[in-house]
Specification:
Length: 251
């Protein structure tokens, strides 16, 4: 039986999603909990990686339950949660078809990024908002974000993993790029058919550079769709992990 799970987590105390030797990633914690329940190793496949310190409101993953476990799929929710640290919670569990894949079946992802403009950051927002106590122009912010909508080559907004080749595809299609006011801050929302490594953080950092008058709007525009054989710049600033949350994955 293939099980789809929806997970929420506070990323502050974890080393990201992807399994690492340290054992303190979201994937490691979930696999350890599942192995305890099943009494055998279980591989968890996520919809994508989140960096250390990044949160999730609704990350999606799947795994194949061993044949000897015949419990109702929803019972995986309490079974896993009793084995997980309080910073990770399984919200839903359901049976899916054998061809479902949390990563390859996903069609759209939405991230949100919270920014605090308070003079002093509340300790209750630490790790959940980028503290940016400066004035910036929301109209310039909107203009910069609108430029990213549609299909573009985002190589200038992608951090290198070291496995890129001449055929690496940096094209992605953004269907949403907007912002809304919060009490003492702002929330940026990005939706796309896929995101490159650190793409949301690099886009967020760059549009805020425009909004603060540190980067001209036309220079920002030139970072999009650069010729592969003649690149002329990279994103000027990568926003911190603080404040970034995976909001939704659609299939």
């Amino acid at each position: 039986m293939r099980i789809k799970i929806v997970i929420a987590y506070d990323g502050r105390s974890h080393a990201g999603w992807q399994s690492q030797p340290c054992g303190n990633t979201i994937q490691d914690q979930l696999e350890a909990a599942a192995a305890t329940v099943a009494k055998e190793p279980i591989r968890i496949h996520g919809s994508g990686r989140t960096d250390a310190g990044v949160h999730a409101l609704a990350q999606v993953a799947h795994f194949d339950a061993p044949d000897h476990l015949t419990m109702n799929p929803f019972n995986w929710v309490p079974a896993l949660n009793t084995k997980l640290p309080p910073s990770i919670r399984v919200l839903e569990a359901s049976e899916v078809s054998s061809d479902f894949h949390a990563r390859f079946s996903a069609t759209n992802k939405t991230y949100r990024y919270d920014i605090s403009t308070e003079p002093v950051l509340s300790p209750f927002k630490a790790g959940f908002a980028w503290h940016l106590p400066r004035q910036f122009d929301p109209f310039l912010l909107e203009d910069a974000m609108k430029l990213t909508l549609g299909t573009h080559d985002f190589q200038a907004f992608s951090a290198k993993r070291g496995n890129e080749t001449d055929t690496t595809d940096f094209q992605r299609t953004l269907s949403q790029a907007d912002y809304e006011p919060l009490d003492h801050g702002w929330r940026l929302t990005w939706s796309s058919n896929g995101f490159l490594y650190k793409m949301v953080r690099l886009l967020t950092g760059s549009v805020l550079e425009v909004a603060q008058g540190r980067l001209r709007l036309d220079d920002f525009a030139r970072l999009l769709d650069q010729p592969r054989n003649l690149p002329h710049g990279r994103a000027p600033h990568c926003a911190p992990a603080d404040g970034l949350s995976l909001k939704e994955v659609r299939f």
